Amino acid sequence: MARYTCSFIVAVPLERLQQALIEVLESCNFDIIYDTGDYMMAREIPGQVSFAKLVRVEVLIDRTIATAQEVRMNLVIKNEELPLQFDNHCRQMFDRVQKAVAENRHWQLVESVAG
Is 110 left (phi over 0), alpha (psi -120 to 50) or beta? Predict the structure, then answer.
């Protein structure tokens, strides 16, 4: 299973984060399949790759340390594909999501950590 993680702190009011995050994920070819307000799961739209390569994104919004203007998000991007090559489909989607979050016009990126 391929699995990549990253963490972001963005400057945005908490009430605007959820809709902006949905727009970011949808722009990267994901459908939101579960959303509780502090946890979101999205699945890559089928059709471009085999079923095992379809990527899922899990986003945990840390409301415990959120301020009026800054929020921390932890993302896990994974699929069932064995990461036999560095530049596999899951890694490509991870890079795409990471770039979309970093460059989103609805917030200002304060900090980014990829693991």
Answer: alpha
